[in-house]
Model the fold of this input.
Amino acid sequence: MTKRHVRVGVRFSHEKRWRGDGQPLCVNLPELFETSDVEGSGFELAVNWVALQGLELWGSLGTLDAEYSSRIRRRAVEGVCDPVDESGEKFGGSPELSYALGATYSYGFDGGSEVSAAISWGWQEGETDRQSCHYIQDLGTETSAYYELDTVEGELVISKDSAIGTLSEAPFDRCPDRDDKEQLNLRLAYLSASGSWEVAGWVTNATDWGPDDDPGGNGPELASGFSDGAPSYDRREPPRMYGVELKYMF
Done:
């Protein structure tokens, strides 16, 4: 008979971080430095349940409230360096809500071998009401122009122009929202009776989720970890990937 039990974990956190680049914010303002002081509080809840022999179900929930406790950032308006105070604003890219669900199952055969399977699915809240973003302009000659955009008095403007671009004003009225993120992972494995070898197959991001295309290939970063370092403007997240593992114990 399998003894069913539930494990519950709760975690509260509070953290402060400081970052400064040590360089004057603007040439004409040598007394100001670009800084980013971040303060955040979080809550995490994790539950594991052994439902049946060999079957375990789990889930987790997390919340995060992070904001700039002190932030002065460089911004250019009409070619003039204009420091902007973003103290009290939400820390960019920090999800307020995320959760995950999963299950693992293992079955042992009479001969001693074992097969196991695992599935996990996670979701992370996107970001809305962004005050700054990037824009990539396709020039049609295998060349692209890069711009930085900022919200100034309720209007989105070009705060950092491109040396080769042709835009004189922001191409849209507001920065696009960042999509909610989700990911489904799967794994199936077989362990030999002697325990000396194991073979497994897996897939990550099984649904091939990726953020929706936004105007002009807009994105928060220019390169991803899934290229040779060349600009990859169309994707910020890993694509669907498959793999096979073979382990042998000597």
